[in-house]
């Protein structure tokens, strides 16, 4: 997508990408209502996440999201994989703890690993809650593992 499409908004003030993400979230909520609890629900939500990654239009985004998925699930197997606004996300006790925002999602320069307010990353009066990820080598994998484990508390 071009920066022109990102900048163009309707009268509601949202970009086309933002409106699409909101529609994806509404679909996720409808799907969740129809699912039973337990293993079947967890399997369906994992499949939703894997499908969202597979649908990424950019090969580099897809590869990075796949690798982030492995790192996050190995670091914290207690997190529940699911989608959130169409993005891969990982929940703890039903609340999204962290998510992967692929660069192609909002036509941004880099993929982001973000943490919501439930993440226990507090460090003084100010701390990062979002991290740009452009590649994933051993140092980044170690840092992400430590962040995710710390975020759980």
Largest sheet: 5 strands, antiparallel
Helical content, roughly? 40-55%
Q: Strand order across the biggest sheet? A: 1-2-3-4-5
Question: Strand tally, please?
Answer: 5
Rg of Cα set: 16 Å
State the helix count: 5
End-to-end distance: 38 Å
Shape: globular
Low-confidence stretches: 1-7
- The overall pLDDT, averaged over residues, is 91
Q: Strand share of the residues?
A: 15-25%
User: Which structural class should the secondary elements be placed in?
Assistant: alpha+beta
Question: What is the H-and-E element order?
Answer: HHHHEEEEEH
How does this structure look, described?
It is a single chain. The model is unreliable at 1-7 (pLDDT under 50). Helix 4 (59-75) crosses helix 5 (138-152). It is built from five helices and five strands; from the N terminus they run ααααβββββα. The protein has a five-stranded antiparallel beta sheet with strand order 1-2-3-4-5. It has helices at residues 3-7, 16-33, 39-54, 59-75, 138-152; strands spanning 80-84, 87-92, 95-101, 111-115, 130-133. The chain is α+β, with helices and mostly antiparallel strands and 153 residues long. The chain is globular and about 35 Å long. Helices cover 46% and strands 18% of the residues.
């Amino acid at each position: 997508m071009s920066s022109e499409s990102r900048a163009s908004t309707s009268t509601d003030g949202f970009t086309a990408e933002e409106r699409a993400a909101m529609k994806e979230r509404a679909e996720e909520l409808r799907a969740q209502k129809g699912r039973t609890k337990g293993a079947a629900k967890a399997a369906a939500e994992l499949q939703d996440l894997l499908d969202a990654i597979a649908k990424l239009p950019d090969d580099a985004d897809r590869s990075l999201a796949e690798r982030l998925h492995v790192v996050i699930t190995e670091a914290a197997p207690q997190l529940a994989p699911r989608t959130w606004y169409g993005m891969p996300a990982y929940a703890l006790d039903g609340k999204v703890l962290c998510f992967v925002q692929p660069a192609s999602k909002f036509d941004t320069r880099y993929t982001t690993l973000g943490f919501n307010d439930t993440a226990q990353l507090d460090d003084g009066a100010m701390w990062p809650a979002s991290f740009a990820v452009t590649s994933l080598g051993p140092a980044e994998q170690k840092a992400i593992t430590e962040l995710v484990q710390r975020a759980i508390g």
